[in-house]
Amino acid sequence: MEANINLETMLIKAMHLDDIVFGYQAFGRENLVNKISDKDQINMIKKAIASGKSLAKEIKAKYNFNNLEELSSKLKVKITYSDKTYDQANMLLFAFYNSKNLITINKKAVDTALSFKEMKTLSKDYFSKKTVTNLLIGHEIYHFLENNNKNLYSNTERITLFKIFKWQYRARIHILGEIAAMSFAKELNNVTYNPFILDILLVYGFNKSSASALYQDLILSEERVNSIMEGNDDK
Fold first, then answer.
1. What is the DSSP string of 95-145?
2. pTM to 2 decimals?
């Protein structure tokens, strides 16, 4: 495979991929992935996508807001902007939510990631700093709502890891929250592509090889999803 792929080439292709493909790639990061069949993963992904989209529609119908800062204020969630790029574990972070109703956007990391000048045919409006920031905020708003609504699908879906007589241990599948959050952010911001594409876009500004590897894995995920949904894989 190619070491580095042109950013615009990756984005144009990724923008047309189905949300399920992004969800399947993300599922690979789930600790319990080996406990769940591919077919069950696809079904869970579909439910998480539908749940996130439905919640965004509910929020848009319930609240009158002109921008996400205004929505956050109505939800009593504070947004702060940080100049940090990496956290204490030296992990690259662009945004995060904590349980104190605070969303932090790492402005320096976003600015650095979006400092590229490689767009020739793809409009920069698709990935302007405002659009990217709003997608990040939307994603974190979902986690705020998720933290305060135990009935959301990403909170209720469980798998049984083991049983002892009548007692059973059922574990939450955390990646479903990330998949639902991306679907929520997509619907909330009325964009046509899956916000998981930001994994490629933002990482590219720091490490082109890592971004290319993410893209290549995404293409492999597309092939895998097609095989599963066509019934060519019984796993």
1. EEEETTTEEEEEHHHHHHHT-----SSS-GGGG-HHHHHHHHHHHHHHHHH
2. 0.92
